[in-house]
Amino acid sequence: MLLKNNCVMKEILNNKIKLHFNILMLICIGNFNFSIVYAQRDNNWCFGDSTTINFNFGIPISSKSSVSISIEANASISDDLGNLLFYIGAKPQMQFNQFGTLWNTNNTIIPNGDSLKMGTTATNGATILPFPNDSDLYYVFTDQSQFLSYTNKLFYHIVDCGSSLSVLNKNIMLINQSVSEKIAAVKHGNGRDWWLITHSLELDTFYIFLIDSIGINSPLIQTIGFSYVYNYPIYYGMYGEMSFSYQGDKLCCVGFGILDLFDFNRCTGQLSNYQDLITGPRFTALNDLYGVSFSPSGNYLYCSNWTNTLLFCQGSPPCKSQLSQYDLSSSNISASRILLADIDSTEFSFGQHQLAPDGKIYIARCRGQFPNYTRDSVNTTLSVIQNPDHLGTACNFQLNGFSLGNSKVNLGLPNSPNWNLGAWVGSPCDTLSVGIVKHTATDFHLSPNPAHDKIIISASGDIHKVKLQFRNLQGQLLHQQAESTGRSFEFILPPTLSRGLYLLEILSEKGMVMKKVVVE
Fold it and tell me: Which residues pair with 83 in a beta bridge?
């Protein structure tokens, strides 16, 4: 029988093998840009046409072992040892619609994990983040893009990887504003919380959400950068990636005539130092940008266009598929541009970029007009920047760098944050104002749980100035109890509660712990 639907460690033998391998990799680590012994949350990529890439063993291994058929939007999450937990994509025969599906590691649809509002053709259409104070709960964020109707909305869903893998809540609208196909996330400067950022479908407005132990806070709204105005038949910034640097201190957004670079403050969530890096005529096929990524050191920026033949590549001269590198240490970044690929062809488009656990940047390619369902040598390989922290051709860009075997890709790769980014040391927020390390969840026991009318919280020792707060999964405060001292506390549940899962925060002068409560 599988343990916790594969949301916990697999068999001990596999973990011993990984431990031995990680020790070996520490010996050989000079060949890599960063160590794979960190949290291996993005070590399994499920994307494209049933494609999986596993990075657990030093070299990527491709297989046709997932079941989703993703054109663009997809995301995957593994545990700290690199075991796949779950992934989101589109069902076969439904890859061009407005709904996503969540599967577990056995390719079985997670209970309540169907019909999630997600545009399968949204660029950064999905990403997965953990609850900051609960290792079992995850947010899945999705962008439901309405192709050519321009009513894109941002939604979230809550997945429980506890005793039974399931979707607790789904299709909750995060903001009642139309947004572009851009979602990106980065660790807060305290090393625990998260920033989630998206961009308005119109104007020059970012929505920046802080995700902390309380939940998802109301967005910070910042006006900066190029304006995403409407120009028939597209919005300038509707599609195209938005990516953070590996260090989390820079953000880049691309689109039709858009190559915007910003500094990002992980303490305040504010963008600054806007730089417009577009060169040449702005609104041409060569500046119809779609993919963007940073090198592991953050010294180099890579971007590529997509030759969207529906709009710009009819007739002659033929369009070019281009990949460019920018030196971010240059005093004139836009002038530092180096062309790494300049291919006279309308046969393929460069798609999304993703920095992988092996320190290389992988780039999807789509055959011909988008979308295209032909399977051939173009879309059964990924392009690879082998040494992304080297200048110019020394970065070793390979057009056909990695074979997917029998699987294929369209435009999308998994949209993953840097899981290994820690606190911003020396910043005003490099320590948590409310610590969570002085108490752990095992210091407290709840009984009964599931509960009906009250809960008894038992502590391992006397706790001073304990305050209890009861919230729903959206972070809304439903009830709280005044401070008290002791090792046993009675908490009366509000009589009007519906059945379901809730969060109990136990705060004291030593810190805060969050516990899940099931109300029956």
Answer: none
